[in-house]
Amino acid sequence: MATPYRLPCCCYALVTVLVLFFSVDATEGAIREYQFDVQMTNVTRLCSSKSIVTVNGQFPGPTVFAREGDFVVIRVVNHVPYNMSIHWHGIRQLRSGWADGPAYITQCPIQSGQSYVYKFTITGQRGTLWWHAHISWLRATVYGPIVILPKPGVPYPFPAPYDEVPVLFGEWWTADTEAVISQALQTGGGPNVSDAFTINGLPGPLYNCSAKDTFKLKVKPGKTYMLRIINAALNDELFFSIAGHPLTVVDVDAVYIKPITVETIIITPGQTTNVLLTTKPSYPGATYYMLAAPYSTARPGTFDNTTVAGILEYEDPTSSPPPHAAFDKNLPALKPTLPQINDTSFVANYTARLRSLATAEYPADVPREVHRRFFFTVGLGTHPCAVNGTCQGPTNSSRFAASVNNVSFVLPTTALLQSHFAGKSRGVYSSNFPAAPLVPFNYTGTPPNNTNVSNGTKLVVLPYGTSVELVMQGTSILGAESHPLHLHGFNFFVVGQGFGNFDPAKDPAKYNLVDPVERNTVGVPAAGWVAIRFRADNPGVWFMHCHLEVHVSWGLKMAWLVLDGERPNEKLLPPPSDLPTC
């Protein structure tokens, strides 16, 4: 056990942190206050400049630092012509659903010229999470890290690193991303793929005109660094590896795990992974590429099949000028070998190795008794074109759609949580979301003749404290793809996964109820299924959606409504006075 490194702001060269620290009773944590000014900023990538939406003029945005138990206050002021909302991805938001951020779910968006103060307490969490815009495709450039340190004096359950560095994967479009998704929704076809992946906002030397825009991790020999890795890409799961340097995974989605050492990790959009990187004992006389490239089982042309590179550089203690400036660009550069783009077996084997610590200090509190069971199909489908119209979907007469249990979610025009709290749900949503497919079929086999999906704004209603088991089944209606699903407001335990159709008679016997990994985002395997369990101990309306933005745009999302409990600490707090209105 080692005391965690206290992060100085200078460790994060890519961000400027605007934070004021206020002293309160140590048992209650500190108050951390931030100012987020949402503004347009000119940025040049791939030899092309454009104006993008940023926070505080930074791309990626500023890091939110806090400790477990702290109270976080973030004032967001919208100076851009777009509506805005920000989601604090992975924060439990216990009783503070008003601060969760998804537009038209927990709040109306912050309109241009308006502001909103997000307030929440970080309870029982430590590790790496992140924040991002949660409306349209604005999160393409509006995102940043959340670093949660343990409480003062509480050590990491692994050797303390010498330094800690955020590594954020993103996607870059030369075009305006709002125009990209707008065109796709108008035509019913797939959106244009991104022009590059990025590491900390930089595309790197493998793209044209980008050698000067390369993320470089500068290290000393014989040290251990913790990389706080975040996949903020809009539409792609990514493999990541560093040549000649194994990575020890110690934390996923801000939950400690039993350490595993690997050459390559896989990380879906929305997920975070903390890894320990131990450098060579002496100066190696070489530089090392760090590469990230997509994992996909979709047909070519429907995703960005490129590779982003950063560079790991060693200080040479024998060189002059001083070591902090001595990085030789003429050294040999070694590259890692990544898995094949469709290496589903690698992905399955990697995810199966992730296990919770399950210790007395960090227990795996898996629900053993299940009150409600759900079976959700997740995948693509179609909508018909307008009468006498043509589309660019799977056929000339259809548009791409996506659904959960054949329901393509329609965002309301007012926020669901506000409607629920005010008792004005009529005409806004219904509470009859199907617990299982209304028409079962061979989910991973021959698709049905009718691929059309229905539309609706339907919720699942759960009494407070309900123990839930949810099996999410991927379909192959328009091809088998992996779907990363993110659940707001909760962590869940991944108790099982497999390929083919879930067998309710046989598969539950293979569940891991002892030390399953605990997450907030999980990939539903391509042509397979995943089973999760969670306890509905957080009152409010909680979004669950695919974290591939294109599939979200097509409707692969739904929401849970958890009712208040009987005790005062089991009830949703009242809305803040500055809550935006629609």
UniProtKB/TrEMBL annotation:
Catalysis: reaction(s): 4 hydroquinone + O2 = 4 benzosemiquinone + 2 H2O
A Gene Ontology cellular-component term: apoplast
Family annotation (SUPFAM superfamilies): Cupredoxins (SSF49503)
Cofactors required: Cu cation
Protein's UniProt keywords contain Protease: no
UniProt cofactor note: Binds 4 Cu cations per monomer.
Compartment(s) where it occurs, according to its Swiss-Prot or TrEMBL record: Secreted, Extracellular space, Apoplast
Extent of the signal sequence: 1-26
Plastocyanin-like domain span: 38-151, 164-315, 439-564
Pfam families: Cu-oxidase, Cu-oxidase_2, Cu-oxidase_3
Leading EC class: oxidoreductase
InterPro entries: Cu-oxidase-like_N, Cu-oxidase_2nd, Cu-oxidase_C, Cu-oxidase_fam, Cu_oxidase_CS, Cu_oxidase_Cu_BS, Cupredoxin, CuRO_1_LCC
GO BP term (any one): lignin catabolic process
EC assignment: 1.10.3.2
Keyword Secreted belongs to the record: yes
Function summary: Lignin degradation and detoxification of lignin-derived products.
PANTHER family hit by this protein: LACCASE (PTHR11709:SF101), MULTI-COPPER OXIDASE (PTHR11709)
Protein name: Laccase
UniProt lineage: Eukaryota, Viridiplantae, Streptophyta, Embryophyta, Tracheophyta
Gene: LOC100281551
